[in-house]
Amino acid sequence: MNWSTIEERWREYAAAAKQQWAKLSEEQIVRTRGKREYLAKRVQEAYGLSSHEAERQITDWQARQVERVR
């Protein structure tokens, strides 16, 4: 699944994102509106990660969403 699908259907994926990154508030999750860059920045800040590590986590999470849909 490409990111544009997640972005378009963000309301469906927001709960899974909140479960993955529990340190993010509900508001932070909703306000991303599925924008990958915004999500990466929030994950990076909340968990004290490098931008590379935040992107890696998002890529891994994205792959699991494909599995979840099947």
Which strand-content bin applies to the residues?
Answer: under 5%
What level of helicity do the residues show?
Answer: over 70%
CATH architecture: Orthogonal Bundle
**CATH fold-type name:** Protein Yjbj, Chain: A
What is the arithmetic mean of pLDDT? 93
- Rg value: 11 Å
* Structural domain count: 1
Strand count, sense and barrel status of the largest sheet are: none
Low-confidence stretches: none
Tell me the number of helical segments per DSSP (H or I, 4 or more residues long).
5
Distance between the terminal alpha carbons, to the nearest Å?
11 Å
Overall strand count = 0
CATH top level is: Mainly Alpha
Tell me, what's the shape? globular
Secondary-structure blueprint:
Elements: H1 3-8, H2 10-20, H3 26-32, H4 36-47, H5 51-69
Protein described:
Helix 4 (36-47) crosses helix 5. This protein has a single domain (3-69), classed as YjbJ (Protein Yjbj, Chain: A, Orthogonal Bundle), CATH 1.10.1470. The chain starts with a helix and ends with a helix. The protein is mainly α and 70 residues long. The protein contains 5 helices and no strands.
Entry keywords:
70 residues; mainly alpha; Protein Yjbj, Chain: A; 5 helices
State the gist of this model.
By secondary structure, the chain is an all-alpha fold. It is built from 5 helices and no strands.
